[in-house]
Amino acid sequence: MDIHRCRFVPYPVSAINAIAFTHSNLPKSAKKSQKPRLAIGRANGDVEIWNPNNGAWHQELAMPGGKDRSVDGLVWVTDPDEEMQDGTIFHGKSRLFSIGYTTAITEYDLEKGRVKKHASGQHGDIWCLGVQPPPTNKDKTPRKLVAGTVDGNLLLYSIEGGDLEFERAVIRTPSNKTKMVSIAFQSKNCVVVGCSDSTIRVYDISRRGGTLRAQMTLGSDHSSSSSKTIIVWAVKCLPNGDIVSGDSTGHLCIWDGRTYTQTQRIQGHTQDILCLAASADGSQIVSGSMDGRIVFYEPTPRQPGRWSKVFHRRHDGHHDGHHDVKAMASYEAKGMSVVVCGGSKANPVVLPLRGVGKENHRNLPHLPQTTNIRSASRARLMMSWWGNELRIWELHKPATKLLADATTHVDMKKNRRLVAQLVVKGESSITSAAISEDGNLVVVSTTSDIKAFRLEYHPKSSSPHPELKKLSMPATGNGASKVEISPDAKWMCWVEEGRKVMIAGINKSEGRYEISKPYKLNRLARRVPKTVLLGGLGMYDRNVTQVTFSPDSKMLAVADLAGFVDTWVLRDPGAKSDASSEVEEESSSGDSSDEEADQTDGEQWTRNPKAALIFRLPSAPVVLSFSKACLPTDKEDGDYLLLAITTLKQIFLFNPLHGSLADWSRRNTYWKLPETFRITRDLAKGVVWQGPRVWIYGSSFLFMLDLSQDLVPESADGPKDGVQSGSKRKRDHEHGAGGRMDKQQVLTTDRVKVATGPPEEVAWMDVDMVEADDSISVGASSGIEDDEDDDDDEDETDGGELQRFRDEAVNGDDSAHGKAGATRRRAKWWNTYQYQPILGIVPFQKTSEEQEQNQENGVSEEKYPPLEVVLVERPIWDADPSPH
């Protein structure tokens, strides 16, 4: 495989300003269907939804922000569960709200993946937001949102009946100079507010006018030459009623919840404390500061009411102190106990709570789970997008030719050219984009619209750059979360409102494109219990996250967060449709059933007759892709091969026309996959095919599996320690963050970067900061089996490992061992962690000249055709995250 390592694709990342969990603590009686979610708000207005998934940490949804928007506070409102007379439990519905230092509160529709509503009133900018605790058995009054403003007002917003509207100002301070910057609740009607005038105020909002119950004063900040007021950036209420505050002096203060007097003052940080979190039982407190440190506090032994610092670490893992910690939230449930924090570093950091001091932290990827790059493989074009801007690049020479022609060094900058650029008008950001393989058609979607463009070249024009000409697009009325173009550029598919799969034909005649009227593809009806449908996040799990066409453009597959896979096939007009299978998925959700639009007289899409036989995946899929080659190990002829990879590192290969698992997948179960792949913490983001080889990549790894070979002989023993195939294995003594501290971290990404040469020609060298486990290689590894000598692996450079792997694959038939030796030496799997955080990998097709040259060199294109890819790296230090 020939790789272009590129870092020229702009993808700015934004600081984390807010973090919130749907449940801070789940009771032991909570059902498994009540899955927690983590919401992360960024300075550019983006909101991300993560599923902790027992430590797998899957970014399920990323809702882009609009122009000049920011998310500076997040609040989940989860209604209490209701038990019916028959014992059925309806889980409380969850809603997500945000503020952005404006006068508005925003609610999100997670089922449709977009903003649902804005609400505002005649008041100043909102700086803090909280929600009243759930009502007790005696108090049945509805909960309200309580907001504090920059002009010192405390506001009530009604959320009753699924609505959101401003109700009234319950507290008005006499002076507009007092800013309410933080909020917490002692009880439903007792609000604790941290202010900018060195005070913490406790209000009783049970009455219409509200009353001031207590006012606690911190005095003045004497750390500088001139005394200043202290800003209370964070307040937190413990289960026993005590109040914890963090302020601009770096002090953590403990206040008695009954007398409202200060019991302890701890100098926890050298700069402002910006956020606080606590364990569910109140036995641990965590603070984050502008100095970049995260400090853990626990009660002092044999000193009731006293607290001590027990552990701290820096947010960035270094000692430069440039990355502040602005937001954090804790989550505890069976098997998990973590604190998630974030700030200007832009990537979420998961720290153990119960296992503090015994387990490592974990850095979650700062790049999106869905890649923001696509390629027009036949035109040697690559497209990238972020915000409302889209760029198209051209790479002139293949990687092999570029290296062959280079005399001293390779100048990647001269091998690329920015050929087109597009800025989408309006406030909405781009959610998805696609480009045809010939590079002539581009489709861009936002949350409100879908636009199509043609890339036109003008031979007589003096400018070498093509132009993007807008095409006529049928009115859709909605935007899209995903959009794809078929390989033959005759079909366009997109996902509306989270789970509606739409498709439209693309007709090309005399150089002109015409997009036909779209129609809806009905998904299989799934049994969704009313307890799920009417509670929690509703139909959110049915949101489609994966869309893929087969290489011949005659089959389409989609998958949702619940693990359901739906497939359709392209049929001729005269083919008979299976009417009995055309049952609409929305019928189970209570939504209105829409009839399909009038279809053209040409080819039409109909459901795969065997679609219902494809079983539900055990967890959400992160990759769904059709193979570009048939495997000799499978008996089925004329069938497709559909690959699915889940968040739990399970790999399934389906024969979708038969509705069954492929032979390879039956023989190579989860526990036969290489352990290096199974223990990789980062999730897969995408795949690239090379004949029967599949190259799987994530944010920190590149992994190859040869699906034409079995990973373990069929007569080999099963998994060790009596673990059965298909069962889940938990990492011992982990609570959802990193591994145990007494074991070396295998898949670390903390490395030193050494730059050599001028700024435009930087060469990067990776130096591992920790030693690896002896049983697993941190560098490149190979799945070549050699019973005669298991210790012949030598330390080589990253390029040498990749070249050695390529030589073994290409020249195996010519080895001294003969055909038998070649079969023994052919790699079954291979992996490396040498690359910086990977934004994405896209393939390019070889030119006819290169194909002829490969044939002359004896390279078999039937087995392992030559593969050229562009790998885009976005290291966090190179992305330069900004707090604004």
TrEMBL record:
Q: Where is the composition biased (Acidic residues)?
A: 581-601, 784-799
Instruction: Please name the PROSITE patterns in this protein's record.
Output: WD_REPEATS_2 (PS50082), WD_REPEATS_REGION (PS50294)
Q: Where is the composition biased (Basic and acidic residues)?
A: 733-743, 801-817
Q: Where is this region: Disordered?
A: 574-604, 715-763, 779-826, 844-866
Q: Which GO terms describe its biological process?
A: maturation of SSU-rRNA from tricistronic rRNA transcript (SSU-rRNA, 5.8S rRNA, LSU-rRNA)
Q: Which residues form a coiled coil?
A: none
Repeats (WD): which ranges?
Answer: 266-298
Concerning SUPFAM superfamilies, the annotation shows: Quinoprotein alcohol dehydrogenase-like, WD40 repeat-like
Keywords associated with the record:
WD repeat
Gene3D superfamilies from the xrefs? YVTN repeat-like/Quinoprotein amine dehydrogenase
**Which InterPro entries does the record associate with it?**
Quinoprotein_ADH-like_sf, UTP4, WD40/YVTN_repeat-like_dom_sf, WD40_repeat_dom_sf, WD40_rpt
Protein's UniProt name:
WD40 repeat-like protein
Name its species.
Rhypophila decipiens
